[in-house]
């Protein structure tokens, strides 16, 4: 299987050499790197693609995913925000932002991100479940913070 991935990588690199200002091979190679759990290389490819097409929502969303895999949540969130602004009808940057915010323990903000995703795609069961789970975490986190404050007094 690795041989197939190596062949695909070579093909994308070759495509990049044909047209240095074409973002598609960078984005495609970044997706391949994400699929084989190489987020650092993926981020490099998505970053190159974003420089070529800075107004491409998909590329920024993908770059956010790569950063999230690297646990660079602030950078991930920044790119999800860009993606959401560039394509306001796409719910996935909001949902992905919600996941990154959860990783930072920012549950209220994550819930708001899932609510935004649901405004766009109200019947999406994954978004509905993510919102419900996040709100439970936010409530639990709030109760624990209150207990901690009481202990300190």
Summary?
The chain is mainly α. It has helices spanning 2-18, 24-35, 39-52, 57-69, 73-86, 92-103, 107-120, 125-152.
Helix/strand class: mainly alpha
What is the molecular shape? elongated
Write the element-wise H/E pattern from the N-terminal end onward.
Answer: HHHHHHHH
Biggest sheet character:
none
Uncertain stretches of 5 or more adjacent residues: none
Mean pLDDT: 90
Report on the structure:
The mean pLDDT is 90. 81% of the residues lie in helices and 0% in strands. With 153 residues, it is mainly α. The protein has helices at 2-18, 24-35, 39-52, 57-69, 73-86, 92-103, 107-120, 125-152. The termini are far apart. The radius of gyration is 18 Å and the shape is elongated.
Provide tags for this entry:
single chain, 153 residues, mainly alpha, 8 helices
Provide the fold topology.
Elements lengths: L1 H17 L5 H12 L3 H14 L4 H13 L3 H14 L5 H12 L3 H14 L4 H28 L1
Helix pairs in contact: 1-2, 2-3, 2-4, 3-4, 4-5, 4-6, 5-6, 6-7, 7-8
């Amino acid at each position: 299987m690795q041989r197939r991935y190596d062949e695909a990588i070579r093909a994308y690199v070759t495509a990049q050499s044909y047209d240095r200002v074409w973002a598609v091979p960078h984005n495609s190679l970044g997706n391949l790197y994400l699929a084989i759990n190489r987020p650092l290389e993926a981020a490099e490819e998505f970053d190159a693609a974003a420089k070529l097409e800075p107004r491409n929502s998909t590329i920024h969303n993908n770059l956010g995913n790569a950063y999230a895999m690297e646990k660079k949540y602030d950078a991930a969130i920044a790119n999800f925000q860009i993606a959401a602004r560039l394509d306001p009808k796409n719910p996935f940057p909001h949902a992905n932002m919600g996941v990154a915010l959860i990783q930072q323990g920012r549950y209220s903000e994550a819930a708001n991100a899932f609510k935004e995703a649901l405004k766009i795609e109200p019947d999406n069961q994954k978004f509905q479940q993510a919102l419900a789970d996040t709100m439970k975490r936010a409530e639990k986190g709030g109760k624990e913070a209150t207990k901690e404050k009481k202990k300190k007094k």
